[in-house]
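This section describes the prediction task in plain terms. A model, or a person checking by hand, is given the sequence of a single protein chain and must write out its three-dimensional structure as a string of C-alpha cells. No templates, partner chains or ligands are provided. The sample shown here is typical of the held-out split.
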Amino acid sequence: MPHAMGWRLGLVLALLAGAVLANAAIGAVAISPGHILQSLAQRLGLLASADIAPGQALILWSIRLPRLVVGILVGAGLAVSGALMQAVFRNPLAEPGLTGISAGAAVAAAAAIVLGGSVVGSLSLPPVAFAGAVIAFAAVYVIARSAGPAQALTLILAGIAVNAIAWSLLGYLTFISDDTQMRNLTFWTMGSLGGSTWSMVPPLLVVVGGGIFVACRLGGLLNVYQLGEAEAGHLGIDAARLRLGAMALAALIVGACIAVSGQINFLGLVVPHLVRLWQGPDHRTLLPMAAGIGALLLLSADLVSRTIIAPAELPIGLVTAFIGAPFFIYLLVRQTRQSGH
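The expected answer:
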C-alpha cells in the first residue's frame, strides 16, 4: 500500500473508532465510554468484572454491538461495490442500482413480507432478498449477453429494463399489502440497521468481508482497465472477464448488504467519488479507503437516524439520500461542465 495513503488511512480509522464509541454510548439508554471499555475488557478476559449495570450490558451486547458490526460491514460493502461499478463503467455516476441488484432484492423482500402465507413468506427475509438480488443481476447479464457481447452500454440498458420490471412488481405488491405489511415494506425499502443480530455477522463476514478482500486484490487490474478495453487487452487482460467478475462481485456484496439492512441509497455513489477527489483514482488505494469511509459514513448516518427524532427511529436510507442527492446533482453538473456540453 503506497506510503502516501498512511496518514489518510490512520485518520479514517481514528474517526471510525470514534464513531463506533459514539454509536455504542448514545441512545435511549446512555452508556459511558468507560463502562463500554470495561465491558469489552471483561469479555476479552482482561478484567475480572466490569462496573456496568446488567441492563446496560444487555443493551450493549444484544442490540448496539451487533448493529455496529453489521453497519460497518454494510457501509464498507456498499462503498466498495459502488467503486467497482464506477470502475467497470468508467463513470463516476455509476452505482450498483444500475444492474437491477437493489430492485431485485426489494421485490424479493416485498414478496416475503406481503405473501405471508406462501412458501416465500415462510422463509427468512435476508436469504430471500439476497436471492432476489442475484437473480436480478443474472437476468441483466443474460439479457445483455443475448444481444451480443455484454458491453457496458448493453448492460446498462438491460439493467434499466430489469429495474422497470422489478419496480412494477414492487408497486403491485405494495398495492395488495395491508396496513401492517405496508408499514414493514415501506420501512424496509428505506433501509434500517434496527434488525441487526449477531446471527447476521458470520454470513456477512464471509460474503461482504471476503468480497471486499477480493475487490482490493483487483485494484491493479482495474487501473489498467481504465485505459480502455482494447488497451487492456493489448496488455494481456481479458477485459470481458474482468468486467463480468467485478460486476458479479459487486452484485454479491450488495445483495448481502441489502438483505440485512434494506435499501440504503447513494452510499455507493458518493463514497468512491469522495475518495477519488481526496487521494486520486488509483484503485489499489481507492477500494480499501472507500471501505473505511463507507463504514464511517453509515455509522454516522445511523447515529443521526436513531437520535434525531428519538424515541422514534428515522429510516437510515432517508439520511443517506438527503446527503447523497445534492452530491449527485453536484457530480452531474461538474461532469457536464468538464465534458464541455
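For orientation: Residues 3-339 form a domain with the ABC transporter involved in vitamin B12 uptake, BtuC fold (CATH 1.10.3470.10).
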